[in-house]
TrEMBL record:
Highest taxon, organism lineage: Bacteria
Organism, as annotated: Aureimonas glaciei
Pfam families: Lyase_aromatic (PF00221)
Name of the featured protein: Histidine ammonia-lyase
CDD domains: PAL-HAL
GO molecular function, one term: ammonia-lyase activity
Gene name linked to the record: hutH2
Amino acid sequence: MVTIDTTLDWREIARVAAGAALALSPSAWERVGAARGIVEAILDRGIRAYGINTGVGALSDTVVDRESQRRFARNLLMSHACGVGAPLPAEEVRAVIAVQVNNFAHGRSGVRPVTVDAMLGLLAHGVVPEVPGRGSVGYLTHMAHIGLVLIGEGFARIGDERMTGAEALARIGQAPLVLEAKEGLSLVNGSPCATGLAALALARAERVLGWADAIAALSLEALGGQMAAFDEDVLAARASPGLVEVGQNLRARLAGSDLIARALGVRTQDALSLRAIPHVHGAARDVLAVTAAVVDRELAAVTDNPMVSGTAEAPRVHSEAHAVAPALGQALDSLGVAVAQVASMAERRLDRLINPLVNSGAFGLPPFLALDPGSNSGFMIAQYTALGLVSENRRLAAPASLDGGVTSGLQEDFLAHATAASTKCLGIADNAAMILGIEYLAAGDAHDALAGTASRAAGTETVHAHLRAAIARYGDDRPLSGLMARAHGLIVASAAPDAGPQEERAP
């Protein structure tokens, strides 16, 4: 169970996305109720307030009378539910709902407690609204499709079964909501989609980076890498938290390797795809840490417009731009670039494992790791696939936050595209997992080709054994695509195996 007291962090959002239950603490429920009281007071006193008793966007100067506000709230969902394309996966929809509930729990939006409870009901009973994944320039459309199900419209899934929103609510014993003033706007507003997807992008990127260190160590060992470049005092001369951590990981993973000892001094220095592992992987870890801080700040922030404050006796309403999330878009763009660079380096290591022009160094690996080079092609074309994904990542890594655009009759004449940045980052992380999976297969086969040469380190033995427990050595005896998909599955399913006892770390 994940409980909102003050605010959630990105890891808690990822837990709810994966299926954990979500609840509000008594103090959070009290904030939600107090904020609704402020909205009611604004309505009773006739205080002009954007989206409460006026239209939205370019229609913000048009007054909506009290009798029309229920219709206005419902119509907002209808007009804003204009996403296109394939639906988001269930975990992504759950993440978006969790972030919006977290936003309402700050007590500055003014939706009714019954509306928040209805959203919690979707999470609790496994109802996944059908949310088209494309068409958003920042927010609005994704949450509108979720809101449709709350009022008994749209479509949803429970398990593998697709049904109407009304059928889904009936299945879980929940009545369709009749929205009141401001609730339509609050349901579509803010940055819940970008932030929810960002939390998942962080979780996926963190897992990819953990595997990147482990797989790089396996490749480095098979290629007879020179460990002097990773000495603690050497890396301390260009220290960053991430670089130091990766250096520690590599030393721990390769401690006691007879293969590394056998290759000592074979080369003066390794190619940069080996020698610069701490620098590239470490830089990505540093970007991950910065991005995580930005996402947590977003979760702690009010992202609804307008927001309310004061009391029912002295209500205040504030029109602002908190729904715009430029920091989030910039951070996710940066994380996408960092993960793409890690994957690009992985493809270069893959090439060194299979390329007969460079892989005959320390131990003499067979061309393309083929069991019978000539009649077998081994991993020759798998490298093509990895390179294609590297190129796709390069295209995806173009910054979404600079896309611009003008909407709503010049009223919204700046767009930060944070949702697009989060979506792209998820795609880059998934491609990176596949590229690393292909390197994993090749590194495992390289070690099998070296059987009897010298022993692996205990820290890489766990990685090799994890692979072989699921996938046998390749011999051109079955389509590689299936093996690559299974290797990708190993990476996305769990963290990399432990390296065993860690080296002593400086305080």
